[in-house]
Amino acid sequence: MTLPEGATTATGEREYLVDVRTQDMEVNMGPQHPATHGVMKILIRCNGELVTGAQPQLGFLHRCAEKIGENVEWLQYLPYTDRYDYLAAMNNNLGYSMAVEALMDIEIPRRAEMIRVICAELNRIGSHLIAIGTYGIDLGAFTPFLYMFREREWMMALFEKICGARLTYSYIRIGGVFNDAPPGWLSEVERFCDTFEKAWREYYDLLMMNQIFIKRTADVGVIPREMALDFGLTGPMLRGSAIDWDIRRDMPYSIYGEIWEDGAFKIPLGSGEMGTLGDCWDRAWVRITEMMESVKIVRWCLDRIEPGPVIADIPKVLRVPAGEAYVGIENPRGELGHYLLSDGGKIPLRCRVRGPSFSNLAVLEALLPGTLLADAVAIIGSTDIVVGETDR
Amino acid sequence: MVLHQSLPESEKLKSGTNWLNEFLGTLWRPDFVPDWAVPLTAVMVGVGIVLAIASLATMFSTWLERKVSGHIQCRYGPMRVGWHGFLVPLADGVKLLLKEDMIPKGADRVLFVLAPALVMSSILGAMVAFPLSHEFFFADLDLGVFMILALSSTTTIGVVMAGWSSNSKWSLYGSMREAAQVVAYEIPLGISLLVPLMVAGSFNLIEISEAQAGWFGMHWFIFRNPFMIPAFIIFFIAVLAEMKRAPFDLPETESELVAGFMTEYSGIRWSFFFFEEYTAMFLFSCVTAFFFFGGFEGPPTHFAAQVFGEGHLVHQLTAFLTIAVKGFAGVFLMMWVRWTLPRVRIDQVMTMGYKYLTPLALACVLGAGVFEVLWHWGVDA
Question: Using an 8 Å Cβ cutoff, are B185 and B358 in contact?
Fold first, then answer.
């Protein structure tokens, strides 16, 4: 007996029941599962421990962010950007603000640009700390996560001092930043950088160079170069497969072009050092190395920052000239793009967001079949998705 | 306790509750209480003592786990309930008793209820063979080690039952992993234990301990033979895998299988699995101490025996404290490993067990045998 023509399972495979004694098992990984890092569901078909099919199912955290964008004023939308990728809210603020500024053509004060870059890079560090830490938890190593939280706590305290919030900052505004750094803040950032460089060595030795960690991640979830391009991966997912693309350097925004010209930072690329090029270890390595590059960028800014205004003169009720703009920035997870369409009114006509987690997530469906269940968890962890952003 | 010693050899039943039996026999009792009630009461009290020892070890271990993990992870762990959170296990117990005891709708009710009971009774049965000191024990079995190994393996059946009856796919995965893992690691566990057994020439834990009494109580098996160290390492790894402790906690992998075979359990039933895990940790640490690290023996026990005489209460107490300290040192080592290492994958677990540990354990047995014959020829064999 066969199923009628065209009948498929949830994973899109034909199911044959002729003389089949054993049957693949369908398991719902999520929406409440520790490995999915939020409310996401992955429907997995398993033959014993072997995954034969996987389909991510989204939408549990959908909050209509884009539709809200079409109904609130330009300035009012900013707090909503905090909530896509709540681990990198500064970067989201930056992306949206820059998209609006691209429509308006305003001059951002130099000090504001500096503080923006410091905040964005600090937030990149914090975001990657979570990425690597939870990746450790996925693989059963709980302790590195709490070591990383030690530094992340300080990073959040720094943000609390500058803007009063710990997670959803809304600090980077259209035209600059909300307020100037309080006295002593910049020197505390410097001390943070000093401490972080020492702590980084700890994470590297404790987690990245752990033999079991290497055994679990090397040669697992290999994304070849072509596949990375085909799926439109961005960020560490792309650079893990040794494709040299970083928007901070290749389509420079803010003052990143200047920093790159100065040779202050490098773009780490996966090398296949422990296994195959583009495996989970490479992606984790790219993330952990990027944190040190972020520290270098922060230090570059700290050396050159000078007093001055921090926000351009913009009206309370913003009327943005008609036109359209797309600005993509390098979020910790990849390219965060904002496409804004204005008819010259008080509210955007269209506010489209390209979230990196959403694009990176698509690769799971191709990557998971053929792996073991434990590897599936390792691969999901290595994509480093934030469900707030995939669903928006 | 001295009473037991004073019995003639022919009447000396191999049970640590004999002294209780005799003590109760000397007491006045009403006529309607039959004679058989006396040994029965003695056994019941003995069971109570075993249960108390297991519970205390478990409670202390859970507190230790919190504190060790806390301090490893740059935090304090529990600090509020009692001194440094010392009473947290009690609060936990009360909480678990008060929690709702849920049985999932599609579960096999009989097996679901039976599984934690089986797990708990197996490990308590194994605890019976654990002597507290040279002369204070529940049962002095000639095959004591064998009984501990056999009964503690029975917990696997309970785990498989729990996974199967829960009517949850995650639970099923957990229990299948447990079955595969235990089968793979029983072999190196048993074989690596042959190395000290060969030297001791006995399955009796007390005799094994006494065999290590020389050198001021430091004639431990681990120092006796170069093949003991690899045998100990193999044994320790196999024990970790047997007990589902990290990095071999595949049956309950919280990041993959939610909570593995325990997913559907709640309240006091769930705590039975925990009880089993922590009691087994303590028990197997003590077994490790008996086989490799001198058991009751150590300089304090040696000098206590010298000063107060063999079998004196102080000597017995020192022996008990020695084994308790060694046991908790082993428990601490297991916790240290757990909070440091990531988890291995199921195929890696299997590869390690079958391809590396088993042949290595066999090589250890061979090497230790040859070494013993050549080195200790005519010395004490």
Answer: no
